[in-house]
Amino acid sequence: MGLFAAFILIMLTIAIVVVMVRDAISGTAIGVSTRNVFLVGFIYFQTISGAITILTGENERGLYLNSPDRTGLAFSMLCLVFIFLFLLFYRLSGRVFRRVSRVRSQRVLGVPGFAMLAIIGLAVGLLLRFVVGYVPVVGPIAVQLSVGCITVSCCLVVYQWAQNFWNIFIFIFMAIVVAVAVAALLVNAFGRREILGVFMSMAWMLYFLKWRNLPAHQLLIRSVFWTTIILISMVVFSAARSGKEKERSVGDYVQAVARLSPQDLWEQVVGGFVGQFAVGTSMWVYETRPENYPYEPLHSVIYIVTFPIPRQYWVDKPNSLGRNITTQSGVGGVSTSEHSFGPGLIGHIVNDYPPVSLPLYALLLAAMFRYLDNRLAANQSNPFELAIPGVGISQLFALARGELGLFVINAVGTMVGGAIIVAIAPMLSREVLDPASEIEPDGERESASELA
Length: 452
What we know:
The chain is mainly alpha-helical. The chain has 19 helices and 2 strands.
């Protein structure tokens, strides 16, 4: 039964890849879209890692499975149904969001304008993160917005560097902006995605504005280079985590990295092969619902709605699913107030009452990605339009892995923060019309005038 479940997940992986390649070749979708970023994340955190988890039995300590083969089969079927509904809703929602598929005015900035906008982004981001972030109620939202403001500055400077590759002064300015951004995002942060988001967003900008028309071998070299940077960053920052990141300074992080041993790094590599144990956690949730713990209908939606409310004003405010699993599993040696498991998308669907959450979450996620891709497809050479989904790309990639409600908050908050800084561009620029999109997001080719 376990072999059959792994076979289903492998075949589902192949089917997802075929859909992405087919749509890109047929011209019905752009190859690098937010939908495809999410699907690649789903493959990594759910299907491929799911097959490996089922075949090897690798799981985080404390989450023991009673019937891994039977549970693995149920998990694979839930993945299959979710992907079917997600792709169906994504296609059907094309017409709903047709009006956002239009060419938008593009702001043309010179080097001084981009530099000023990047500095503004850093300044606003630092203000939101280290001043407004400590204000009750608005603080959590301000922190999310700050990530977008800071990251979009990196998007802007890498764009200018790509246009002036041999200009040493622009390169030095970019290096300074990125260094300040990474240092700021290291403070008071537990997750890795904010740091990874800086590098992923820069690669995102470079692809659309510089790489997508390159010969295949040159594109491959650049992809390998940036993928290596991202993977190394993920392994190092994962290994350096201690569970007390909210109390750490940049210096503490540097010391933690310096103390890493080969064993620490190897453990993170092993965890990477099984998608950070998201599948094993999802399977544990499946086995314990509703026999041991009741379903929590639409828990992820409730978590999103109640997120801004300080816990000091609402003692019984719902915890994240990952934090609940820490308490429910009774795992020892960790702080129940700090440690959190990554439940995986399917784990959330199971916990949130599958008959309702499975179709609803597939619909909501499909609609979100369709909206982003419709805007993206019509503005593939507009750096400001590209930067908005770009700053949230690491969160969108990881949606299938961790705390669904929190990752949605992170993604939306980050993109809104980036959009705030982009909205300042008209004050520093003149306006031109962006060229028409090469690909229509709903599969129908039209002229720029029709789209407008």
